[in-house]
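Retro notes (design track)

What went well: tokenization of the new backbones is finally stable.
What didn't: we kept losing track of which sequence belonged to which structure.
Fix going forward: every design gets posted as structure first, then sequence, in one message. First example under the new rule, 480 residues:
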């Protein structure tokens, strides 16, 4: 009896302690959360003399002349007796395949102006009618010139997934895909304020949004047809996009892979664009390797010729993508931050030394950042990013602590003179976030961006910096 009473007493004591602890953690009211918007800082009043205009180095230009020449010099290259590729008319290539009963056109560039020039030169080779047009994927530099090649009765082929993007994402985003492409390809957001380039951008979109002529035939995984005795096998090959396809022409041993290979480290994560199906890209390259083509026809850059050369490039390309993916996943699982992963993950030799895996178009660090975002989402685990204040709150506090915009921008000018353009521009961002009407901050940042552009060896960087420069110069011109 005593044992039972002791047990009841002990249980009650423990329950009382737990209840007391819980009550001790409670209060009648939640803690008051104070949200205060700091005052807008005054505009900077410093005197500023912009640095002299930068220039591209001869060393940099000569390094990329062989590749750049294929992007900006119009040329129709004969691949076989029946296959021709138009390059340099626009950003995207156009492939023409001749059969006894007519022509098959693969991709149509981003503009009707470029397409007209391509067709004019194709007509110097053959006057046969166009029977089919094939879209490798929905990106604007492959589909916007179709009207020039199209006539009644022409069949247009794409994957069924193509419709999801053209009817879904593109209209929903207000054609932002097209305008963002203009942005990072140097078409610039504010062309009246852009600095000039030593060569004209191959992108001929010009801010216009041509009509997309919709496919008449769509398929899920495979589709084939024969024209004039020549067989065409279309394969749904995810990679650059979910809707991507490749065209296999077995009689010619020729494979058009669209944007799943080009002479640069691939865009595993596009700038300001949709996520890329990296696993699909790896699988698609494996299929291409098994097919053993003699010719690799591309959406950008020059055709690869010779079975051994094609195999070498495809295998190295696949290995590079798989390595970057697997190493990034390992870093995520090891609990590393994205900045730690970017600092540590590099392509191993000899892949890093291959000219077609250099960062001319896209870069390894962008791939790591993109994969982190795709796999881990937007929250970084630091707590403060769960419900962040607008950036202007923090920036205004920083400007006040620094003693005003002049203090921060004086340091930005000093850094700019020392060649630290990135840090200079980031300090300007603090002042701009605190006061978007600060003319000096926009101006200093613009000139730092210009120097970053001229010091870059990446085409997307140059285009993006140029567009950002134009935005800052316009903001400075309109600042009150």
């Amino acid at each position: 009896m005593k044992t039972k009473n002791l047990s009841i007493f002990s249980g009650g004591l423990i329950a009382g302690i737990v209840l007391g602890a819980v009550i001790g953690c409670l209060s009648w009211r939640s803690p008051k959360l104070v949200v205060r918007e700091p005052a807008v800082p005054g505009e900077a009043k410093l005197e500023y003399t912009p640095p002299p205009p930068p220039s591209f180095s001869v060393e940099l230009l000569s390094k990329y002349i062989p590749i750049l020449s294929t992007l900006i010099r119009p040329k129709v290259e004969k691949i076989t007796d029946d296959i021709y590729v138009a390059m340099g008319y626009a950003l995207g290539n156009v492939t023409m395949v001749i059969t006894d009963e007519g022509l098959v056109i693969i991709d149509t560039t981003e503009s009707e102006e470029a397409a007209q020039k391509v067709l004019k030169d194709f007509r110097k080779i053959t006057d046969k009618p166009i029977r089919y047009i094939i879209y490798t994927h929905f990106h604007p530099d492959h589909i916007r010139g179709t009207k020039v090649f199209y006539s009644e009765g022409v069949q247009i082929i794409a994957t069924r997934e193509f419709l999801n993007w053209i009817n879904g994402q593109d209209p929903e985003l207000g054609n932002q895909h097209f305008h963002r492409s203009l942005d990072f390809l140097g078409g610039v957001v504010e062309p009246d304020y852009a600095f000039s380039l030593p060569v004209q951008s191959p992108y001929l979109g010009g801010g216009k949004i041509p009509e997309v002529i919709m496919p008449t035939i769509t398929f899920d995984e495979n589709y084939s047809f024969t024209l004039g005795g020549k067989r065409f096998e279309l394969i749904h090959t995810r990679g650059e996009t979910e809707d991507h396809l490749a065209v296999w022409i077995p009689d010619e041993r020729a494979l058009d892979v669209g944007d799943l290979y080009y002479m640069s480290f691939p865009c595993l994560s596009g700038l300001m664009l949709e996520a890329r199906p990296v696993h699909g890209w790896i699988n698609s390259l494996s299929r291409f390797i098994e097919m053993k083509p003699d010719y690799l026809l591309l959406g950008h850059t020059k055709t690869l010729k010779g079975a051994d050369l094609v195999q070498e490039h495809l295998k190295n390309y696949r290995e590079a993508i798989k390595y970057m993916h697997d190493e990034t996943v390992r870093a995520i699982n090891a609990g590393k931050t994205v900045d730690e992963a970017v600092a540590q993950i590099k392509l191993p030799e000899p892949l890093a030394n291959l000219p077609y895996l250099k960062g001319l178009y896209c870069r390894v660090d962008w791939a790591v950042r993109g994969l982190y975002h795709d796999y881990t989402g937007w929250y970084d685990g630091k707590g403060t990013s769960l419900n962040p204040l607008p950036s202007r709150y923090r920036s205004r506090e920083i400007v006040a602590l620094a003693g005003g915009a002049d203090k921060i921008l004086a340091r930005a000018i000093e850094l700019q003179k020392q060649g630290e353009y990135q840090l200079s521009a980031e300090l300007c961002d603090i002042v701009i976030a605190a006061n978007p009407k600060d003319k000096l901050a926009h101006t200093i940042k613009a000139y730092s961006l210009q120097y970053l552009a001229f010091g870059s060896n990446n085409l997307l960087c140059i285009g993006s910096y140029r567009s950002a420069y134009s935005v800052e110069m316009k903001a400075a011109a309109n600042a009150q």
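Added context from the reviewer: The chain has a mean pLDDT of 89.
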